[in-house]
Amino acid sequence: MATIDFDQTRAELEHRLKMLQGRFVEPEFIRDYYGLDSLDAHDLLHDVNRYRKTMAPGPENDAAYVDRYALEGFFQARRLLPLKWAALTLGLNEELFRKVLAKRYELPTPLREEYVWYECLVKTSFAEDVRRVLPQLRNRSFYDHRGFCQFLHPALQKALKISDAEMAEGTAWCATDQALREVGLGDDPPRVAEYFDCLTCAPLSAAHCMWLELKKPRNLPPDRCSKLTFVCYPEQIGDLYVGTRPPDDLSRYERYRQHLAGAR
């Protein structure tokens, strides 16, 4: 699972931030953020481009770039997620998620539907169906994703014979929380990721995220970054956040930044 790269140069972050204020992104971002090496295979790019024609007309782009608004709109319309993102719906990294997907026939009620499309996208219904067929999760509600995963992961381990070590290694831990824990500032129990930071592409929990205002259409999922990213790159991010002022609970992230500066 990716970690936060605090050695990322300010120029690199500025470049990505500027790029994300428009709709067209480089293939490298598609790889790093969505986990998609290419859109060319299995008619995915063709279908995304057909979907794009249903959107309001927009500017033309260089063929080397990808329209991320169309890509995310396509995911939303078809109820699909890239494998990298689908894994987070179960609080897992992509490697362990692929194993769970492959062994879905061994769940208490076998899931025999074909969930994978284009060999790289997964139906959002998979996570819903997994929850439905595990007896330990029936008739339960959860306060947050961490609480959900605290019940889900042992249930998956029992059903699919996953060891404690494999589950610990395959859990999608929030990179911000892991960084904070290194200096005694993290949460207990540790946070599990639900998203990816759009600037660092590191896994991110809801507890440590903030929304960025990057002119993205409101019908698409918001662009999120870690509060730690915001604190470490205040000049680059500036006032590009949702709301009239930045979050008011930044003290421990500031303490981590000071620790990081002192260690260099």
Biggest pleated-sheet summary: 3 strands, antiparallel
Secondary-structure element order, N to C: HEHHEHEHHEEHHHHEEEEHHH
The total count of strands amounts to: 9
Strand line-up of the largest beta sheet: 3-5-4
Tell me the Rg in angstroms. 19 Å
In short:
With 264 residues, the chain is mainly alpha-helical. Helices cover 44% and strands 9% of the residues.
How are the elements arranged and paired?
Elements: H1 10-20, E1 24-25, H2 27-34, H3 44-52, E2 66-67, H4 68-78, E3 80-82, H5 83-88, H6 94-102, E4 116-117, E5 121-123, H7 125-133, H8 145-160, H9 164-170, H10 175-181, E6 195-196, E7 203-204, E8 209-212, E9 223-226, H11 227-232, H12 234-237, H13 251-263
Antiparallel strand pairs: 1-2, 3-5, 4-5, 6-7, 8-9
Question: Could you characterize what this model shows?
Answer:
It contains 13 helices and 9 strands. It is mainly alpha-helical and 264 residues long. The strands form 4 sheets. The chain has a 3-stranded antiparallel β-sheet. A hairpin with a 6-residue loop joins β6 and β7. α3 packs across α4. The longest helix is centred in the middle third of the chain and has 16 residues.
What keywords describe this structure?
264 residues; mainly alpha; two-stranded antiparallel ribbon; 13 helices; 9% strand; globular
